[in-house]
Amino acid sequence: MWRHSRQLEADVQRWQEAGWVTPDGAKAIAEELRAQTPAFRLPAVLAILGAVLLGFAAMSFVAANWQEMPKIARLGLLGAALWGFYGLAGWLFSRNLEAFAHAAILGGVGIFGAAIMLIAQMYHIEGRPPDAVLLWCAGAVLAGILLRSNPSLVLAMLLAGLWSGWETSITEHVHWPFLIAWALISLGFVWHKWHPGMHVSALAISIFVVLLGYLLNEGHAHGLVLIIGLAVATVGILITTLHAIPALIEPARTSFGYAIAVSYAALFALQFIEDPTTNTLIATAVGTLALLIGAIILALRTDNRGALWVAYTAFSIEVMGLYFKSVGTLLGSSVFFLTAGIVVIALAYVAYRLHLSAQVQGRA
Amino acid sequence: MLNRIGPLTAVIIVAGLQTLALGYMVWERTNLLANGREILLDVAPIDPRSLFRGDYVILNYRTIAQLDGALLQETPIEDQNLYVTLQRSAEQGWAPVAASVTKPARVNAEDVVLKGRVDHVWRPHADQPTRIRMHYGIESYFVPEGEGLELEKTIRAGEMKVIVAVGESGESAIKGLEIAGRRVYDEPLL
User: Hey, where are the domains in chain B?
Assistant: First the structure.
């Protein structure tokens, strides 16, 4: 954010010198920039970190020796800590110190989790550990939605992942209820119009979809994952290029990058984990490289940096993977490097042509 | 929502609901301990090296930790709930007489139904019945600091029994320990 505005200031100065922007216009832009407060300020970040540390302090109470206290005193202490944090949050809200209030809320959610564990310890409740995580997650969602606390929603997403992962490790089956938790938390992010939260949601669902490939059909469902990834990528790129639904363009751009990542994760598993026959591997590898080059071209066309980064990374991993797979087996290393070189040069050529056509369009 | 109901109200709702959830956890447990039926279960001596993890004891119940597959008609799968009917006898104490994946509709008034979860199902030899390793949620006991070694000795001497409270739905909780016929470590409710 800071970097962006600093660069913009320099640009504006340059534009003013070139006569494209009037001095009044430059002043208005500078004021507008100053009015935009950065999303994260240092005190807020420190306050959040402080709350996280206090949360950990409370959790280490589990291991600490508090056996001497009677149960009722321990319960009282937990209740007081819980209400203390939320009370502090309410007071900070009333003083308009929102950032600190959100830190206090996060502290309260942390205490809630610690209290669940401590009560389970005090009463020898063993139960299913994921149930305790789910209860904590529910508390975090409640605080996240009711108090518009985005940090709590992020914590809730982490806890939902932990809950689901734990259930999956016990049952060794896909844990579909994760989708309910995911949808609820994601709705919170959408409702708060909090952009980083949408990335949290996209990342969480991407991991879930990729893991489906390892869990469904006795661990061989990567084809399904690929279909899901490609379908989302197609819808994403259609919405982005057709400009049909303006409200959905930004989410579509974001999902395109994640969908490419999901598709490539499936293709990686199909090539390097599933142990395919040589012919299948060659066909899949050619398809993968074509898909990734296509993704790079589309990302460049739509100026989608996130997707471009994903596609480039996937391309590098693919090339590395094919190299390790091909050494001594498939083709000679030299043939491999020849092919890879030709592909990369072709890619550079395509990028150059795109650049040219963009310039021509710009001039026209 | 914050704008509509005011931050203070929202904060009170969140803190209140979270307190209720914690309160319910405590209430459920104290209710079980206070009103559940008491049974006494033997614990088997186990390798002392695996006995302690931190300051809690792992309890290996002599009669119910492993069930004979012949106790029930169907073969259960791992992680499935299992209802074990326990009957008291003079020589064995509380021991399983039947087990089922659904809660038995009626049992003798003296018997107790304990709910557990299947950990593992296996067959030691092809001609032997299956064995089922069970988990009831009463396998670990947090020991007061510094008293772990003492407990370890009594368990190895085979003198310790665990007092378990069993609720109507088969839920169970450790209520206390009995050493050489004497009740020690009675769990305080609050």
Answer: 1-35, 37-184
